[in-house]
Design a protein that fits this description.
It is a single chain. This protein is α+β, with helices and mostly antiparallel strands. The protein has two domains: about 60 residues, no CATH class; about 230 residues, no CATH class. It is built from seven helices and 14 strands. The chain has a twelve-stranded mixed sheet, sandwiched between helices. Strand 8 and strand 9 form a beta hairpin. The longest helix has 20 residues. The chain is globular.
Length: about 350
């Protein structure tokens, strides 16, 4: 696959220094949740307070339920609350490390990711996509369909996709660089592109240490990151319109990226990326796009490889006077060596609506 250019690293790094504000009290947090019902913009303030101040109360199921109901089941808000709960239970483990340690981990992650992508084995995997839709901001997802896609990766051709079934009905489709010719929303690039652009010098990514967290028992450091529009050469969002049964017309615009990355404190591996597209033109039909990708170790012909296990992708678009969200929740199943046949199993073709809550990690 394409190697990283041996150029001077241009990626910038900074450590945020936060004021020592007191942790949120339970009455203060509850008051913020009720304010959120009146003004959705308050969500950003709540998440910022949870991450930067933490909480001084024990996180209970009752508070989780209240957060779901008042926060329209928003997963970013729920995730921030869970992170704050873990820090409240174990404040010592949640302490931010010295600047030198955080910078060293980021440098290690850059090196480990470059080696990981350079040594990526050829493989095939089954991609099971639960697609759903909702009125924007409600979190009330209505299942649409389940799509099964065979994905192959090789150093020669990169990622190749072939749709096998939609809602259990077999589909005769050609293999290609995307599967965007089916009806509905589609994604791509989760295997290599998302990681590659994060650390390559051309992206000029800026990083800022945010907090600590735990991903599947692994202690991590969480960094905010941003890639500006002019530096995200292969990034962007698009939408398609039907050509009356003769396929689809695709329109896309470039975009930047802003989000967070979770890095394993021991091995330097990226375990999660969560980002939103930025700088989308105000008159473009797709108004927002977010993606959250979880990575874990999988076995491919006896070789242990770090690859995606789930991804959660959301598109916000305007249709007339209404604003809608489409959601593609993807599970990556049965990684195998390149050339293996991808088989559809009974569990794959059953309707599998995207979960209302953040999915549990294996």
């Amino acid at each position: 696959m394409k190697r990283f250019a041996s150029l001077l690293l241009l990626t910038a790094f900074s450590i945020s220094i936060f004021a020592q504000a007191k942790p949120l009290t339970q009455p203060e947090y509850v008051k913020m949740l009720y304010a959120l019902q009146k003004d959705p913009a308050v969500k950003t303030d709540i998440i910022d307070a949870l991450r930067r101040r933490g909480i001084d109360f024990v996180l209970t199921d009752g508070l989780r339920d209240l957060t779901r109901s008042k926060g329209a089941n928003d997963e970013e808000l729920k995730s921030a609350l869970e992170e704050a709960g873990r820090r409240q239970k174990d404040p010592e483990a949640a302490k931010l490390p010295p600047e030198s340690e955080a910078k060293a981990l980021l440098d290690k992650a850059r090196q480990v990711t470059r080696e990981q992508l350079d040594q990526m084995p050829d493989f095939v995997v089954k991609q099971v996509i639960a697609r759903s839709a909702a009125y924007a901001g409600t979190g009330n997802w209505k299942p649409l369909d389940t799509v099964v896609v065979a994905v192959s990766y090789s150093d020669e051709k990169g990622e190749q996709y072939q749709v096998l079934a939609i809602n259990g009905a077999p589909v005769e489709a050609k293999k290609g660089g995307s599967y965007s010719d089916i009806e509905g929303s589609t994604t791509g690039g989760e295997f290599v592109e998302a990681l590659e652009k994060l650390f390559k010098p051309e992206s000029k990514t800026t990083f800022s240490l945010l907090t600590t967290d735990t991903v599947r028992t692994r202690p991590t450091l969480v960094f905010d990151f941003e890639i500006l529009l002019e530096n995200n050469k292969n990034g962007g969002v698009g939408f398609k319109t039907s050509n009356g049964g003769k396929g689809y017309s695709h329109t896309s615009v470039p975009a930047g990226e802003k989000g967070r990355v979770w890095i394993d404190r021991k091995g330097g591996h990226v375990l999660r990326i969560d980002f939103a597209a930025t700088s989308i033109p105000a008159d473009f039909q797709v108004r927002a796009y977010t993606s959250a990708i979880d990575y874990d170790w999988v076995d491919i012909a006896g070789e242990r490889v770090l690859l995606p296990i789930t991804s959660d992708n959301r598109f916000t678009s305007v249709q007339g006077r209404e604003t809608f969200q489409d959601r593609n929740y993807i599970r990556y199943k049965n990684y195998q060596k390149f050339g293996s046949e991808v088989r559809i199993l009974d569990d794959d073709v059953k309707p599998d609506p995207a979960p209302a809550a953040t999915p549990e990690k294996p």
